[in-house]
Amino acid sequence: MDCKTKIKELREMTGMNRKEFCDYFMIPYRTVTDWELDNRHAPEYVLRLLEYYIRMNNLDKEGDITDGKETN
Questions:
Q1: How many helices (H) and strands (E) does the chain have?
Q2: How far apart are CA 64 and CA 62, in angstroms?
Q3: pTM reported for the whole predicted model
Q4: What CA–CA distance (Å, rounded) separates 49 from 60?
Q5: What is the CB neighbour count within 10 angstroms for residue 18?
């Protein structure tokens, strides 16, 4: 999965809009915007860390991030 798709999927799974996501994770708004518009690419480890943090802190509002199945 490419960076653009993955970062948007992670953000949408939390139920946060872009500003809320940026504020929560302390990532500059412009950076996330560039990632989602495919102007820049987040390092793979950043995507993995975000996914891990979202899972471990139960921020995933819609079920499992990777396969769409409900975790409850």
A1: 4, 0
A2: 7
A3: 0.79
A4: 14
A5: 16
Cα 11 from chain centre: 4
Q: Are 3 and 50 in contact (CB under 8 A)?
A: no
pLDDT tens per residue, range 32-69: 999 999 999 999 999 999 999 999 999 988 655 454 44
- CB of 10 within 8 A of CB of 36? no
Q: Any idea where the domains of the chain sit in the sequence?
A: 3-56
The DSSP letter of residue 65 is T
Residue owning tokens 């949408």: 12
CATH number for domain 3-56, candidates 3.30.70, 1.10.760, 3.30.1460, 1.10.260: 1.10.260
* Tokens 């989602």 sit on residue: 36
